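Hello again, I could really use a second opinion on something today. I've been puzzling over a protein and I'd love to understand its fold better. I'm sending you its amino acid sequence along with the backbone structure tokens. It would help a lot if you went through both lines with me. I've dropped the whole record in just underneath, so have a look.
***
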Amino acid sequence: MKAVVPFRDPEQVARRQEAWEQLKAATASLIQELESEATGRVSRRLNIEQRWLRDLRQYHGLYEKEIEAILNSDEERSKIFINITRPKTTSWEARLGDMLFPNDDKNWGIAPTPVPELVESARQAAKEAEEMDAQAQQLVDQNNQMVDDGAPDEQRLPVLQQAHRAGSMAALLRQKDTEARKIMEEAKRRSEAMAREIDDQLTESRYPARSRDVIQDAVKLGSGILKGPFTASKPRQKWVRDPDAGDNVFYLDQSRDPKPEFRRVNPWAFFPDDNATSMEDCEDTFERHLLNKRQLRKMAKMLGFHALTVKELLEDAPMPMAGGDMMWLMELRQLEGEQTNGFMHRYIVWEWHGSLECKQVATLMRGLGRFDEALDYEENHDPLEERMVIIYFSQGKLLKISEDFPLDSGESLYSVFSFEKGEASVLGGVGVPWLMRHEQAMLNSAVRMMMDNGALSIGPQIVIDKTQVEPENGSWKLTPRKVWKKKGQEVNANSEPFKTYNIPMNQAQIAGIIDLAVKFIDEVVSMPTIAEGEQGAHVTQTMGGMSMLFNSANVVFRRVVKNWDDDLTTPTIRRAYHWNMQFNDKPEIKGDMQTEARGTSVLLVREVQSQQLMVIAMNWSTHPVIGPALKVYETMRMTLQALAINPDDILKSPEEFEAAVKKIAEAEAGQQSPDIIRAQATVEAAKISAASHTEQVTAQREIAKLNQQTEILKLIQKEGVDIAKVQALLEGKKIDTDSKERMFAAEAAMERENRDHAEAIGAEPTGSGGFLSAGTVN
């Protein structure tokens, strides 16, 4: 249906406005306190922001203002800046992003909480069931022995009762084992469904891309902030046919679908508790939104700000971004080469997450006219409980107060990842530029020395005796083919009007300082050339040696990835799990589960895993003892993942794999043993050889007959031999041939008998060397 403007009852609008005015009056003092606290936190963080600006100047290859002023005061000095900070920073950023967010895997997981206990319970139940079965069998054997010995029934009755109890106990234990396994399967199925649901939500909110932005902030400034999950009702636009206007009339339906959202928070706009060293002990947080009029309207619609208050702000001009609090913004624009002609004009909207004291909550209730509820809250309030709220305000005006915190767990929606953690505050972490600031300065100084030395030594220093010569054109500047005029009388014949002196070139010595600075940079940022894809000076020619070098370079990476797992992945996925348990209406994903970060345990060691998995796949799969214990399909899948290859593009599905294995097993089950197959093949080969030999003998005999007849005809034609003699000769040849045929038949029969005998005893037949070679046994 088309969107219809709802009817607004004037009396209802008036009541709402009156309630809002009461809320504004009740929260006026609170808003004033929050605004004062926000201003104080901005001023107290100036030192950290100055450090961030120095890091960014170094990242962009610019000197600090003091050094830049000194260099600009002397035009003859070199001002070169060899920017090693940027490639080292981007290398860290790219490496972390590639390891933590691969295309074929995720850096987190969810597992059902009771599974370890249930596994142990099922294992113990199965073991006790086996013991009860053994005990029952012993009792049955004892009863049978007593029957054989002729024992009366009253003596055998206790034995049978004990056997019955043991059998019943074994059945109960097996039932317990079965129930535990059913619970495990159900818990596993629910956890897999929850993991798929969270994965879809993270993908839809572009969690990997936003996390890479957080990594970039942490590597450059030292701290990166991720916020979420917060419920955002995004409009789902789709064209729908209008049933009232005809088949060819459509309208754009913009229904809203609440989903959890995750986004990166600009470190310049995040102000946590000053005294907190981690987000776990952070009491409250401020987030500053710098908005123009369009952004303010959009945010007001999405979050439900009070419409009249937003209208008042839009009618007023936004506050100019002047003063020391916003100087960072001007410097950031200058670093990126922008020309700043004045201060920006933006609305400053503050978002505060924190807990209210009992007195503040009661004051809000009384301001809303809920006097009885305020009195009851003061009398029955538990001081150990917190009342978490979210308040939006701008320029001293309340925009919205959310009495219901997004998560019932009360956990902060912000996670802070520090590249190198600080010890005094949440945002005290430092990044790559700060770690290598001295080494970068050392490198720049050495390079400037080399350039200045090169400029001085490129040509000689010339000394001119003005008493002996003077320039013809009146200029003492040296130029090619210049004419000089001699002056006065020569007093000393050895005196020369011109002398030259060369400044020594110290490039080799300064190059040693440069190499030393580069080495120091590699050490302080823990990014050696081997980790950047280059072997460096120490080259190894073996794959094992390269793997050892790469694994050693990964030691420090594990530490940084562990920071990501502990400070960002674990709390973020835990909050996503809490959000789905609280708001998701799918019953098949609900359950008691726990999250796990897999950055250091899985993703970081892929280089080593890939080689180890290939060795396992090649050697263990064919091992007669270890092979049956190996999960072949999972091994192949993990090997491809370690090689950064999508397994779904190569491997069949598990069902297809199982069907193929079953088919091969069925085919092998109908075959005989290899020894029998080898013996049968030998016999068949002997048969084929015998048949071939028989055919060969027959063919030779026919050829001999033809040759004989041919010779006789030649003899008759040549010498006129009597035909009677020829016939007598043929008769003799025929008798000889028949005799050989009988001998061949007798030998063939004997060979067949020997061959059958060899097959019967499982031996291989050998030939006799006669007409045939197919059947005798040695």
Q: What stands out?
A: The radius of gyration is 47 Å. The chain has 22 helices and 14 strands. Residues 1-7, 771-778 have pLDDT under 50 and may be disordered. Residues 295 and 537 are 54 Å apart (CA to CA).
